[in-house]
Amino acid sequence: MTIAILIDTPFLSIPEYARRTGLSVRTVTEDMETGLIPFYQRMRKSKRLVNMVALAQMAATAAESPEPWNHPQQIGEIS
Hints:
3-stranded antiparallel beta sheet; 4 helices; alpha+beta
C-alpha cells in the first residue's frame, strides 16, 4: 500500500496548528509536552513550531500499524 501525504508547509506556529485542527492552543502545547505532537525549537527558550513532516511520518506509521485501533474494520475480528 502506498500512502501519499501532502503538506503545505514543514512547520506551523502553535496558533495556526490549533486553528487548523480545531484544538485550543493550550491543548496543542500540552500535547507537545507529552510528545503527542512533534515540534521544532531552535534554542531552549525560542518559539516552538509544530513539525508537520514528523507528524505526517507518524501518521503514515500509524496507518501501517497492525494494531486494531488503527484499523476499525478489524476490531470486530478480535477474539
